[in-house]
């Protein structure tokens, strides 16, 4: 493990989630979300480069662990919740950039799903709701900082504000759908304090650096 460094003075303990989650239907099939994990890995890299102690909780992605970052690999939303709860206990900041699956199959079959063998042209899958990791952890966050992401269509700002309130986050990073699997992104960072900051067509590394700055508020004069 490369993350066992002593944090620098003023450094923060940061938990970042990244990538999709997977919910298995059977041993070879799963439900998942589109997500490269690049934004979360860029945030982890930027925070570690600033001297923070970073725990990166990653769903299944093909990305290298940034230098100095402690990585925990998970598969399902419930695995991710358990890993986030454990890491957040001793952290100052949580940044939820993972694309967590909202639903999982009510049952995971031990063998392959062979529904088609009965000659039927349709099949249905019963789904149950996954826990909301951000909302669960934010409930008891105290003065720790929690940052969420939102990918919205339509009236994005209004929806993102409502999501921030509903989930109890301090900030929400509103992403344009163009961010998916692309090198550049445009985001609006909205805060509980009413703040709104637009960052247009920047690399994910630049956006990551701006987010990390948010977690290091300037000391009061
Ligand atoms: N999130 C989470 N747990 C979930 C679903 C989402 O922690 N089960 C987090 C994401 O990591 C993100 C934020 O919540 O930081 C918003 O995710 P999004 O998918 O936009 O929100 P949903 O709650 O799924 O809302 P909807 O799909 O209805 O827009």
Describe the 3D structure:
With 221 residues, the protein is of the alpha/beta class. It has a single domain (13-103, 127-214), classed as 3-Layer(aba) Sandwich (Rossmann fold). It contains 5 helices and 12 strands. An 8-stranded mixed beta sheet has the order 5-4-1-6-9-10-11-12, sandwiched between helices. A two-stranded antiparallel ribbon has the order 2-3. A two-stranded antiparallel ribbon has the order 7-8. α1 crosses α5. The N and C termini lie far apart (39 Å). The protein binds cytidine-5'-triphosphate (CTP). Residues 77, 96, 98, 100, 102, 130, 132-134, 148-151, 163 line the site of cytidine-5'-triphosphate.
Q: Any idea how many domains?
A: 1
Reported by name, the CATH topology is: Rossmann fold
Radius of gyration equals 18 Å
Question: Rough shape?
Answer: globular
Largest sheet: 8 strands, mixed
CATH level-four homologous superfamily name: CoaB-like
DSSP summary, beta strand count: 12
Distinct helical segment count: 5
Beta-strand percentage range: 25-35%
Order of helices and strands: EEEHEEHEEEHEHEEEH
Helix content: 10-25%
